[in-house]
């Protein structure tokens, strides 16, 4: 029995694993470990994980010897979990296990690699850690917080969904730390402060106290070579915090082989890579079943047929199905629902979210019906509370499968027994091995699924070494953007970009200061600056610029026209094609404060051109209208438009003040838009994931003179009265969020 894969197959195949069989497998693992090689140890780990996955087959007489081997591999979380069957008999073993218990997290044991990272962090050393998705890197964040070693901590994560998950995990430390999630929340002077922010919010936060510790989750997003349009901001957020406060830091991310040479040395950091995992993944190829020489449509139909059969075979095992785009995820989910309905399966459940969708969106939206059969979709366009609820239901086992895009891979912490790689693209680009590894990493879940499965419906990308560039340090002239370059300290600028740096610094000092604070396209801001100077020469131009509070339709359109092609464009054409259309939707939303009006507008305009409007087409067009409207809300109203108005506002203020004329003031409108036109002190509730409609109903019951923090306390103390105003789903959200 020398073939490693044969051993794994035997463990999975046999009905019983006798004492003799156990001794043979353990002897083989012991020989592997005696080699003291990383790959040999990895195979020993995999074998033990599969044994744990099939523990009901193992002879009770072998429990003791398996416990010794599993302990020697450092599987202490599993020993704690299975302490009845994995008893440690020697005092030495018990002492060793005690060493792996967290000093600050009650009843928590680390595996051996986690303990190494924990020791490094608690010694106050800077660490850049690359480890698998199932490693448990985020648990180490909690240990740093629980240690109370640092007064002011910033945690930067790429999405608000991830930050909200982190807030819920860490809210137990609210008596020690003030948890800050919005730039409008001032730091506490009485307590420590824990800032949970995106990179954009770090840049916008004007009065940071002295930061002692900085955490960047998914640090590979610093790279400009991975074509992330938010990489500039993440680089600048690091520079802002590190240059000002010189904090200790912890970078964490998955499946990375190295970083820009010299970075770790400059910042006195350790790069630590580990492949250690307490979860294994079986890879099952389905691509060989597909006739790739057929038409795209025929291939797609065949893939859907194989998918439906596979999901039937998997039964109630939880599964993530990765699709390239939101439109693909929606379409494949509907086809699977159609398959389920043809089998005449009964409705599985009536989740509170379904009733809410029926009342607040429409029963026409296919998601409502899909949820009744344990099916969901997840993409970046979903309203925040809906996406969060879907993940929560899935994690609680209330949903069987989620048809998802890359947002669930990069922006949310969840995993499943099974992952299906249905598409080989992310948007219009092919996924690379790094993307594939991250998708694969969602299969299996530590402490729940010992062994996950990934089913590949397409060809797996070729393995490659992943080296993450750190642009502000590397300063590659072909890659480094001016938006990062302008934030680098003069003494750190390298010769190859010195001329560009000096050229930027010929700008007037007051303009350069504004440009740096805004953190967006330098050339775009210069063009806006010149345009405003020119337009201010006429009365109409001044009228369009010098407004305050709320803009007229003309003034709003003007600002968007100034920003177009300087701060944003319409190349992606997802939902919005022109300034005129964007202004129309923006005006509709600020007037009616209901995204469903935009859904209706998009849907009715679409069906006007359809001759034969079948029920199936109606469903298709309505789903598209919902997805488009939600995208407009999330991408345009909540992010792009507020940023554009804030930038134009800062530049017009500079010009007006320089010319000693009264400037406009766009801040109230920006706050209203970002706060979903909800009273400012209640916007924290939307931030926490309460539906906007519910917050508006509570407005009369919550005093307007309370701070955001006081609003949260008021809600906790007055739940009985507030609950009377809410639907069951909204009460559920309040329970889970606060």
Description of the molecule:
With 738 residues, the chain is α/β, with parallel strands linked by helices. Helices cover 51% and strands 10% of the residues. The strands form four sheets. Strands 3-4-2-5-6-1-8 form a seven-stranded parallel β-sheet, sandwiched between helices. The chain has a six-stranded parallel β-sheet with strand order 9-16-13-10-12-11. α17 links the parallel β11 and β12. It is globular. The model has no long low-confidence stretch (mean pLDDT 93).
Topology diagram in text:
Elements: H1 4-13, H2 19-34, H3 38-53, H4 63-72, H5 76-81, H6 91-99, H7 112-122, E1 126-130, H8 137-147, E2 152-156, H9 160-170, E3 177-180, E4 192-197, H10 199-204, E5 213-217, H11 231-245, E6 248-253, E7 258-259, H12 263-266, E8 269-273, E9 280-285, H13 296-314, E10 319-322, H14 326-342, H15 352-360, H16 366-372, E11 375-378, H17 384-395, E12 401-404, H18 406-410, E13 418-421, E14 425-426, E15 429-430, H19 433-440, E16 451-456, E17 467-468, H20 471-474, H21 482-485, H22 495-504, H23 509-518, H24 522-535, H25 539-545, H26 553-563, H27 579-592, H28 595-607, H29 615-658, H30 667-674, H31 683-687, H32 692-698, H33 708-717, H34 719-723, H35 728-737
Parallel strand pairs: 1-6, 1-8, 2-4, 2-5, 3-4, 5-6, 7-17, 9-16, 10-12, 10-13, 11-12, 13-16
Antiparallel strand pairs: 14-15
Helix pairs in contact: 1-3, 2-3, 7-8, 14-29, 15-16, 15-35, 23-29, 24-29, 26-27, 26-29, 28-29, 29-30
